[in-house]
Amino acid sequence: MAPRLLAGLTGVVVSLLGITGCAQPTAPSSDPGAAAVTVTSCGQQLSFPAAPQRVVTLDQSSTETMLALGLADRLAGTANLKTKVAPEYQADYAKVQVLSPKLLTGEQLRAATPDFVVASFKAQYVADRVGTREELAKLGLPTFVSAVECPENNAPGTTPFDLLFSDYKAFGQIFRVEDRVTALIDKQRAAVTAAAETGKKVSGKPTVLWLYSTFNGVPYVAGGTGLPTEMSRLVGGNNAFDDVAEDWPEVSWERIAERNPDVIVVGDLSERGAPGDSAAEKITMMQAHPVMSQLKAVRENKIIKVPGIEMDPSVRSVNTLDLVAKGMRELGYAK
């Protein structure tokens, strides 16, 4: 770890010790809130004698999960907002300090004096950002990563939605809000079941292309290791690039045309503001491309627009699942 970051993170621990020293006495053992909780997150065992009070989230997905569980009051800060927070979370989000609109640094993490750090992705924990999980653990700061990032730790047949729900259950234990978690899981399981009912009515396994973004005109699509493969299966289709062992591989328009998808799901990242981020820009690119423009899906506008952030696993992903199921019905694939 760079000396500058180590010094910053050591400051986190010193600050945390100071907070602990001024805290109220531990509640009696008869208080359920005082019972120690142990969970495992992507191979690391985390122990919480009491529910965390100062949580820092490193990405929008983990921020919105906290808000969905009514835990805005536990957030000491957030970072890395990719797009607008979902409308149902905006009022609570407005109460939370934004430590950085982009990726968080070690210095910013130190200044927030957290007692718990949460991220959806392993990539957030690197030495030149906030430090690795191992480095932070040595300094007494527990870190969480979504179970979706570690499918190898789960039983065969476990779906990405199952992994998301396991994240919620872990938060329920950590923050002692199991009743809220149960309500959220029940609601989201109902959405998954509804999409699967649509899928049962779809015949012929239509091929679905998931177009996330473009960079310098080059498309990035959903590969076989991400959530879109499961969402395609649920709505009765097949992911066009489910044979590629990556989440979001870079491909060419010509390679997409070779797959000749029946349906194209286009991610809208308008708020991010980069060229080609909006759904409208991506559709215009396809209509103008000499090969893509000849595809039936493009000519007949068999295109479904969804929020781009919901293509990655998050508390909002069931919304995109519902949009795609609805799109399959409107396009005539569900009989």
Q: What does the model show?
A:
This protein has 335 residues and is α/β, with parallel strands linked by helices. The protein folds into two domains: 3-18 and 28-176, Rossmann fold (3-Layer(aba) Sandwich), CATH 3.40.50.1980; 202-330, Rossmann fold. The protein has helices at residues 3-21, 60-68, 90-93, 106-112, 133-138, 160-175, 178-200, 227-234, 253-259, 279-288, 296-299, 317-330; strands at 37-41, 44-48, 55-57, 75-79, 98-100, 116-119, 143-145, 207-215, 218-221, 238-239, 263-268, 303-307. A five-stranded parallel β-sheet has the order 5-4-3-6-7. Strands 8, 9, 10, 11 and 12 form a five-stranded mixed β-sheet that branches. Residues 1-33 have low confidence and may be disordered.
CATH level-1 class of the largest domain:
Alpha Beta
Order of helices and strands: HEEEHEHEHEHEHHEEHEHEHHEH
Number of domains: 2
Proportion of residues in extended strands? 15-25%
Helix content: 25-40%
Low-confidence stretches: 1-33
Protein name: Iron complex transport system substrate-binding protein
Pfam families: Peripla_BP_2
Keywords: Signal
Organism: Kibdelosporangium aridum
